[in-house]
Amino acid sequence: MAFENPKSILITGASSGIGAALAEEYAEAGVTLFLGGRDADRLEVIAEKCRAKGTQVETQVCDVTDAAAMRAWIDASDDREPLNLVIANAGIAMNATSVSGLQDVASQVFEANVTGKLNTIHPALERMAKRPWPVKDAQIAIMSSMWGHLASARSPAYVSSKASVKAYGQSLRGAVRHMGIGVTVLCPGYVRSAMLNENMASVPFLIDADKAAKIMRRAIARNKARITFPWQVRWLAMIAINLPGWLVDRLNKPYGVPRLDDDKAP
Ligand SMILES: NC(=O)c1ccc[n+]([C@@H]2O[C@H](COP(=O)([O-])OP(=O)(O)OC[C@H]3O[C@@H](n4cnc5c(N)ncnc54)[C@H](OP(=O)(O)O)[C@@H]3O)[C@@H](O)[C@H]2O)c1
């Protein structure tokens, strides 16, 4: 299959959690990895682990919200080794604690989770689209979440950022299919990472990042349009998106986090 053995792979958010696990999953002799993150020390630790497997690794300390820097990095990587797979993974999760904090949290989350993904996807896509059609071995993977299927009073910004990139990726797939470029949207359930440690009280169906990376690699190799996993989460998501509005409303409470504190105002 055309997408099975990418040799030149760029991953954002590779300094931690799922991105780091994906880097290690793809690391092998004959592969070049371009790994991005903001924390140079953590990024280098992951790079060294990948190099130990015989992989060529280049790291870039880069903020995904910096469009010019992202374009420069992606162009330089593609010049070095034409990119086969770009995984737009970097993201943040934040909850506001007051009504007055909602807008700032939403801006920060959308900047990292939506604009940051666009800053990753589009420079790569522009490069890929310039290759002869049908383009061989060129694919974009976009990290959404199971929350992209749901509503959550706990974190309106996070869930809507994930719904946004899910819809964007699924739509983009149809727009570039005729060029031969693949697009896969990844919707994991809870995956053990720094993000969860900081933000979550209860985490049903939790899986380890290395297991999640294997599942995502398989889906990407098959150029699946979208994968929601593990299977329990996939079924729950299928039920949830078909619930009537009144029932969604009943279930939509800020489980696991305090209510917005402005609620206490007289
Ligand atoms: N963990 C879960 O349960 C879960 C489930 C579904 C989807 N996801 C998604 O998976 C992705 C990775 O999350 P994770 O769980 O692996 O969390 P994580 O361990 O906190 O890792 C987040 C990664 O994103 C990078 N990052 C964040 N903001 C960035 C920015 N502005 N510029 C560049 N890099 C930035 C971080 O880099 P530095 O640390 O170097 O700053 C880090 O490498 C996110 O998109 C998240 O929404 C996570």
CATH class division: Alpha Beta
What order do the helices and strands follow?
EHEHEHEHEHEHHEHH
Cofactors and ligands? NADP nicotinamide-adenine-dinucleotide phosphate
> How is the quaternary structure best described?
single chain
What is the third-level CATH name, the topology?
Rossmann fold
Number of strands: 7
Q: Give me the secondary-structure category.
A: alpha/beta
What is the annotated CATH architecture?
3-Layer(aba) Sandwich
Overall helicity: 40-55%
Percent of residues in β-strands: 5-15%
For the residues shown, what is the average pLDDT?
94
| CATH homologous superfamily descriptor | NAD(P)-binding Rossmann-like Domain
The biggest beta sheet is recorded as:
7 strands, parallel
Low-confidence stretches: none
Computed CA radius of gyration, to the nearest angstrom? 19 Å
Intertermini distance: 63 Å
Overall 3D form: globular
In spatial order, strands of the major sheet run: 3-2-1-4-5-6-7
What is the number of independent domains? 1
Q: Topology of this structure?
A:
Blueprint lengths: L7 E4 L5 H10 L5 E6 L2 H12 L4 E6 L5 H14 L4 E4 L10 H31 L9 E5 L12 H21 L5 E7 L5 H6 L9 H13 L4 E4 L1 H10 L4 H7 L15
Parallel strand pairs: 1-2, 1-4, 2-3, 4-5, 5-6, 6-7
Helix pairs in contact: 1-7, 3-4, 4-5
The chain binds NADP nicotinamide-adenine-dinucleotide phosphate.
